[in-house]
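User: Fold both of these, please.

Assistant: Here is the first one.
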Amino acid sequence: MNKNCLSAQVEKLEIENFCMFESIIGLEIHVELKTKSKMFCGCAADFFGKEPNSHCCPVCLGLPGALPVPNKKAIEWCVMLGMALDCQIPEFSKFDRKNYFYPDLPKGYQISQYDQPLCINGKLKITLPDGKEKIIKIRRVHLEEDTGKLLHAEINGKKSTLIDFNRSGVPLVEIVTEPDIRSSEEARIFLKKLHQIIRYLSISDADMEKGSMRLEPNISLREIKNQKSPASPSEAGRAKIKIDEELPKYKVEVKNINSFAFAKKAIDFEIKRQSELLSKGETPQQETRGWNEKQQMTTSQRSKEEAHDYRYFPEPDIPPICWNKETLNKLRKNLPPLPDNIIKKLIKTYKLSLYDSTIIADNSAVADYFEKCVSLAKNIPAKTIANWLINKKIDIKNLSPDNLVKKIAQSQQDSGITDDELYKIIRNIIQNYPKAVSDYKSGKESALMFLVGMVMREVKNSSLADKIKLIIKEQLS
């Protein structure tokens, strides 16, 4: 972190009571892979919505004598995700037993990875709201098996907990970042980009409503010591500060969040809660908490374990994984183009703006659809096709690229004006009426309608009003 730049959250805390703290945030993300079978047995991994305990066998139930057999496809997909996150792939890796006793873990241990995971030392570049770029380091990407699912119900008037083992043994990738994140917004941006990459790789649906991508932020605060107290809050930003580079001696983990928005809210709540405790001279308890969306707060669940509490040791029933360069090169060649590369291509090849390119590249299927449309269109600019996809929310599943091109061509013929001509008129109007542009940007909606009216006088086609309005808003954004 640049010591001369404080996050907005830190500055807000500083102004309130001049006890400044820097938020230290790391993320753990669990992603269920969409392999056909589970991680260590032949049971179908497609368990969602199925009858409870209908996708189980002696291996996923942890019955005596059952032996695990690793899923090759899951291992390859985990490594490909690591490669997409610029990780190093060690030539030697192994599985370990993570021992703990919980009802949804029938064996009494989870097969996971501890000190020699499949992928290490990666990074992911994100773009912040102010346009600056930041690199978030990835500590590890490893593979494990998912647990069963606890279902709370009332049976014969008594509160009971049931266990569905259909999910037990499903391949689960865990991505662990370094504590490089400094605000809830940085966390949200990182998570959205990671989600996008996972979808591009087609290794998981990453559907958070179904629990196939679960978010777990680790949050703590460290004090920023002031060398000179300011005379007033307005001078706080000019006070010299000294940041302790050591990590705080505690951290709070918020478990199993299934929404980017909820993750942001949980982090913001924890920053406020912990800052209040630290300001009173109290150290927040190292614990695991949950997010309660109804109450808009985190709630305590249990004290947080350390690695030694799990008594890790090498899994004796699975041999180590040893890679050769030829196999790793083959996996690397199978990586599809990733979002950042697609955005660069859209800008360079089709002359789209960064804004349009980012929206189209958000979904690999939309990006592919766009390129097919451009290849079919002879006299329709790529920008026009992009506008239709972005502004008209085209259903690409039910409208073929060929039919969309025909639809755009027919629309231009009916309107009597091409998109290039329309854009030229709109740009001239924007240039000729700077006062209206300034008024609109300051929040006056009537100024937008004035600009629409000026364009309509030129094109003399009332059917284009909605389209003109969308284009002007896009140009002024």
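And the second sequence with its predicted structure:
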Amino acid sequence: MKNPETLLLSDVDVRALLPMKECIGVMERALRSVTDGSSVLPLRTVMRLDGTPNAFAAMPAVVGKGAGASLGAKIITVFPGNDATPYDSHIGVVLLFDAEHGKLLAIADASSITAIRTSAVSGLATRLLAREDAKELAILGSGVLAMPHLEAVRCVRDLKRVRVWSRSGDRAKEFAVRARKQFDVEIVVSSTAREAVESADVICTITAARMPVLEGAWLSPGAHVNAVGASLPSARELDTAAVVRSRLFVDRRESTLSEAGDFLVPRSEGAITDAHILGELGDLLAGSVKGRVNRDDVTLFKSLGLAVEDVAALRHIHGKAVATGTGTSVALGGLR
């Protein structure tokens, strides 16, 4: 009997099989499963590399129940300093297994899946929380998440202008050149984060900052913020005032209480309590909590990135890859 075959899927394969609009729908289903309990999601395991900001992480999850469930994990290195190199900050693989025999179905590039699914979740949060007439987007950070975040927000709102700021002005300018070629929208490079944020309807923070780059005093009434870049208890992109004045929603409450410095630091200061988290995106999707109550609300989505997002994304990719003959098949064993 032939050994069961596993599909190897490159970054090119992932990008071809996971367009942003489709991924937003995949993320909606995945985040519903987090809130309704139909997925199993342990907290990620992170091993820090001594004397560096770098880490090695394992993120397992089960998406769905019964024979139709998908088992999987993302295994990655996180090297924040790679922003100044040719390498991505997140490098690794996503693994997909079936739930009947534990067969390894697919191994896929994690960098591309992470960039697309992270941005798609921000797009979903923007759809649920930003004002319907939002037209001005501010992006703080010009790394690998900048372009897919622009694409994701454009999927859910009719943008007229995008302002980008980055600590590296040259990289911001390079991003603007590429974005103008890809999208029919005005792109402006801002000299300061404040200049980018003031009067913006939607703000995406996608930096490697450990200390705040966004101040609450800069936010206009009615603004929506997707806080994405910080995923350590001690790191944050938003100052306390920004969190305090916002209606806060998260991808997962348990993860936020364990890992999100944007929430944990203000709580340690006594500025907020756990009750400041109004709900998960899954709660908004289920209609069990309200997002924007009035036009002038400032809303905040704190994104940490969840393994169910990676596994759900690869399950979607794998189904399309099998149907289209995409990827490289390898026999890794598994039969006696």
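Residues 130-305 form a domain with the Rossmann fold fold (CATH 3.40.50.720).
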